Amino acid sequence: MQQTSTLVSTLLKITKNKQQDAIPVEDPEPSDSLIQNILNYSKSLTIKKSDSVGFIEVVAS
Hints:
Elements: H1 10-22, H2 32-44, E1 45-50, E2 54-59
Antiparallel strand pairs: 1-2
């Protein structure tokens, strides 16, 4: 009977954990100007239903 085995490198596991510990995850907050731009876009966007093509998006700017 033949045995099959897989070699697992412990060095790879150690490196992976060190990289995860070294880079902290931060939640960036959007700027006020970005939020204002999104709100302005949503105010100028109009979506109308069409029988022939489905929906039509119109940006009034």
